[in-house]
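worker-03 picked up job from queue 'complexes'. Input manifest follows; two sequence lines, order preserved.
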Amino acid sequence: KAGVTQTPRYLIKTRGQQVTLSCSPISGHRSVSWYQQTPGQGLQFLFEYFSETQRNKGNFPGRFSGRQFSNSRSEMNVSTLELGDSALYLCASSLEGGVSPLHFGNGTRLTVT
Amino acid sequence: EDQVTQSPEALRLQEGESSSLNCSYTVSGLRGLFWYRQDPGKGPEFLFTLYSAGEEKEKERLKATLTKKESFLHITAPKPEDSATYLCAVLDAGGTSYGKLTFGQGTILTVHP
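worker-03 finished. Artifact:
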């Protein structure tokens, strides 16, 4: 079974630009979550989607948004990039987003200059 | 607010030298405690889920245990390939916890041959 696929693997953007990250979940998984990982803050929850609906959201500014498509694939968008947005963005999928374990992709490394 | 504290921050072992990693947590109600392994440049890899105090899970050289306040990851006779960052995370029993794990900062394990 294929794992969670994230594209692209690396991105370099300039402050003020916007970026879209993509995530394909494990086949049959309907829940997709996004996390930001930095050396200082560790892994922090961004949001979770299930059946194209956002069910949960973390404490990030409105510049961070996402969506989920009918095939469970998900995208995350960050607008008006700031230097502090440089991080590894991880997507994780699970069967239903409750107690079933999250399975992570290898992330997109975003560098903002 | 949920809190997860892992100790030690870093642990160096000789091959074959058994040890334990600690994860202390504070949640209003625990739905599940998760252990992950993360290798450099990769996303976290799921290891175990523990649901209630007294529960134990084993996989190869790893054994995870759970009490009402903490979890231990015991590593028996480790090998160099066990070197990684080990992450602990909790899922709150609250109704809005979909996809939202609270992670500790991790323990960096290095096993020398």
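worker-03 released lock.
The interface with chain B takes residues 4, 31-33, 42-45, 47-48, 50, 55-56, 58, 90, 92, 94, 97-99, 101-107 of chain A (CB under 8 Å).
The mean pLDDT of chain A is 96.
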